[in-house]
Specification:
The complex is a heterodimer of chains A (about 325) and B (about 375). By secondary structure, chain A is an all-alpha fold. Chain A is about 70% helix and about 0% strand. Chain A has one domain. Chain B has helices spanning about 45-50, 50-60, 65-80, 90-115, 120-140, 165-185, 190-195, 205-210, 215-220, 225-230, 250-275, 325, 330-335, 345-350, 355, 375-380; strands spanning about 5, 20-25, 30-35, 150, 155, 290-300, 300-310, 315-320, 360-365, 370. The chains are: A mainly alpha (about 325), B alpha+beta (about 375).
Chain lengths: ~325, ~375
């Protein structure tokens, strides 16, 4: 019975199927909203489904220089890691699907796997654009990851637990952590780190299209590219879900006017709000250079996170 | 260890096919090698095979963006050969269309420059405002892009009095948006981070490599054919030659944006001072043997035409030197020492137009001798 629910959890809800559907839909909304912000009509919000579906139906071509198990496995491992995190964050209640299995440290590890897979895919693609993009991604990872961990650490110290259910439970009683003035710098730092994690302007440096075509993904096409897109879309929703659980109180149920609103709706609203915030940020800025991005992460963003950490430790 | 980053013939940073071989060390550019000829059209030869009137349509298609300046320079050259002077009103209409074209070209450049630094919102907004100029061009000439306004001896369509208020209203809107973009480019921190101290061309280098147009003006070289060697009615209109000192990508952008404002001033003056009269004189196109050169300031810099007539309806030789050709000499100086991330924006900062620029000359690499091939030989070699 437990095994069956694990299979159901990883493949249907909140695993592969649910995460893919919501991920594709949210990126579709993101593209539509970006279109309107740029004075365009934009694609329909189900465009991402059409794109991924079309890519999946195409012939699977691997360039001669790229034929290696790493190149083929990279998108699958990335998608697997992203879906696994979906099981570890609270989606339909304060408890994640897999309870008492893993804490925040595991989640941070797992969230790095898509990035590492992308680097490996880029390096093994045998293209100078892939190698340059992967090299840039390594540098960028060292920028945003430190900030991201510090910002999470501030929230962890405030609550005093590494478990996400405890953090969500704490917020249900004490109010959202984003409303705590001591954690406000950490929230901003985490948002900046998310922008880099999701490769959005101004931190879309590893796959800057006008400079290095598509970075590590340049040589990918057909079904492999579709799986990359899927992995990226699931990663987006996962990162937004983690942020919601950490700082926005996680999924909670409401009663509005006598109608019970399930907490899954709350999860969807909060994650969509975060995705739209990153959409806004990516539409009002130019892309930075990799050295400028690293400098920004290691000075301003790190400083914000550290201020928060110190405040949490010092001010009771 | 260095490795090669190929940019082109197909690459998202290039709008036309050319090949740039960048040797990079990590992110730093050590050397660049350029190979041209992917978009050669053989227009100079084709010009010799048609008569003067058909050639107007052909030179209009040398460059899609700056087509009016090509026809204007060509028509002025042929008018000089034939010894006729177009009517005053035609010259004013030419200036109006030329300046509207400069606005359109600079806005197009500006939009793609924003795209090259990853600012797609600004790209779309700049092209939205470019639509206003296109509408004005359509109002005056009947066409949005290739205006087909110029003809030998004048222009084909008049600016009607009832159009004037629409044009002035459109210019006001353009002025507002250009001012907004100047403000944005001087204040937005991500734009400044990407554009300042990037792709610098010093004043000495600009002089040494004979840079033309906005590229030279952004390095502080005060050169503009419109004021140095006035053609049409530019000597009767007052305008400033915009220069900046820095020579980086930011200066090149600001020069172009401020030139939009100057162009708007010129169009306003031209509309106000335009005399009433005919717009076209008759020209006999059997022109006796004569030769001439003609220069004009295209949006990208100095455009140069040489024309040789031989007493028939067809020119003996028409030689075109486009501004991109003159500016390619400075490109290496701007790249070396920079990073891979700067390639698109620095390349775009000279506003390259590769198709205008491609010429063929046959050189024996062992002896260094140039030679010509007959059409049959070319066909045999599939060139």
């Amino acid at each position: 019975m437990e095994f069956l629910s694990f299979i159901l959890g990883s493949l249907v809800f909140p695993g592969l199927l649910f995460a893919s559907l919501i991920g594709l839909l949210y990126i579709g909304i993101d593209r539509k909203v970006a279109g309107h912000m740029q004075n365009r009509i934009g694609p329909p919000i189900w465009q991402e489904f059409l794109d991924v579906g079309k890519l999946l139906s195409k012939e699977d071509i691997t360039p001669g220089a790229a034929q290696s198990p790493i190149f083929t496995a990279a998108p699958l491992v990335a998608l697997g890691a992203a879906v696994t995190v979906m099981l570890l964050i609270p989606v339909s209640s304060a408890q994640p699907t897999l309870t008492m299995v893993a804490d925040l440290i595991v989640i941070i590890y797992l969230l790095n796997i898509p990035a590492i897979c992308m680097m490996l895919g880029g390096y093994s693609s045998g293209s100078p654009f892939g190698a340059t993009g992967a090299g840039r991604y390594v540098v960028q990872l060292f920028g945003y990851e430190f900030v991201f961990i510090l910002a999470i650490l501030a929230a962890v110290v405030r609550v005093g637990s590494l478990g996400l259910p405890t953090i969500v439970g704490y917020q249900a009683q004490q109010g959202w952590l984003v409303l705590d003035w001591r954690l406000l710098p950490a929230v901003i730092a985490a948002l900046v780190a998310i922008q880099g994690k999701l490769l959005r302007v101004p931190f879309d440096i590893p796959e800057a299209e006008s400079e290095i075509v598509h970075g590590p993904l340049t040589e990918y096409s057909g079904p492999k590219l579709a799986i990359w897109r899927l992995a990226y879309d699931v990663e987006t929703i996962v990162v937004a879900g983690l942020f919601a659980a950490l700082f926005l109180g996680g999924p909670t149920a409401y009663v509005i006017g006598g109608i019970q609103i399930p907490s899954i709706v709350d999860f969807l609203i909060k994650t969509l709000a975060i995705v739209l915030l990153t959409t806004t940020l990516r539409n009002i800025m130019a892309r930075l250079r990799i050295d400028q991005a690293l400098k920004f992460y290691w000075t301003s963003a790190t400083l914000l996170a550290i201020i928060s950490l110190v405040l949490v430790l010092v001010v009771p | 260890m260095t490795f090669v980053v190929p940019v082109g013939p197909q690459h998202p940073a290039l709008k036309e096919p050319e090949f740039f071989k960048f040797e990079v060390k990590g992110e730093e550019i050590v050397d660049v090698d350029i190979r041209f000829g992917y978009a050669h059209k053989g227009i100079e030869e084709a010009l010799q095979r048609r008569d003067y009137k058909h050639d107007v349509y052909l030179v209009e298609r040398i460059c899609g963006i700056c087509n009016v300046v090509h026809t204007t320079t060509y028509c002025q050259a042929v008018e000089k050969l034939a010894g006729v002077e177009p009517p005053e009103r035609a010259k004013y209409i030419r200036v109006i269309i030329l300046e509207l074209e400069r606005i359109h070209s600079h806005l197009l450049w500006f939009g793609i420059a924003a795209h090259q630094i990853g600012f797609n919102t600004l790209f779309m907004l700049a092209w939205r405002d470019r639509e206003r100029v296109m509408d004005l061009r359509e109002l005056i000439s009947g066409n949005r892009v290739t205006s087909a306004t110029n003809t030998i001896g004048g222009v084909r369509r008049d600016v009607k009095p009832e159009q004037v208020s629409t044009i002035l209203r459109g210019l006001d809107e353009l002025e507002r948006s250009a001012e907004y973009y100047i403000d944005l480019f001087s204040s937005d921190r991500t734009i400044l981070a990407r554009c300042t101290d990037v792709g610098v061309l010093t004043k000495d280098d600009a002089r040494k490599f004979c840079a033309v147009g906005p590229l030279a003006r952004a390095s502080g070289v005060d050169t503009d054919v419109r004021s140095d060697h006035p053609y049409a009615v530019y000597d009767k209109l007052s305008f400033k030659v915009i220069t900046e000192r820095e020579g980086d990508v930011w200066a090149k952008s600001i020069v172009r944006l401020r030139e939009i404002l100057e162009s708007i001033r010129i169009v306003r003056q031209a509309i106000k001072e335009m005399p009433i009269g005919p717009i076209r004189t008759k020209v006999n196109i059997e022109i006796p043997r004569n030769e001439t050169i003609e220069r004009a300031e295209a949006p990208r810099g100095e455009l140069f035409y040489y024309a040789l007539s031989n007493g028939t309806e067809r020119p003996e030789r028409v030689r075109v030197r486009t501004p991109t050709y003159a500016n390619f000499a400075s490109i290496k100086r701007m790249f070396v020492g920079g990073t891979v991330a700067e390639i698109p924006i620095v390349m775009w900062s000279i506003d390259p137009c590769f198709t205008c620029n491609d010429r063929v000359s046959l050189v024996d690499s062992r002896t260094g001798k140039t030679f010509t091939l007959s059409l049959e030989e070319l066909r045999k070699w599939r060139l």
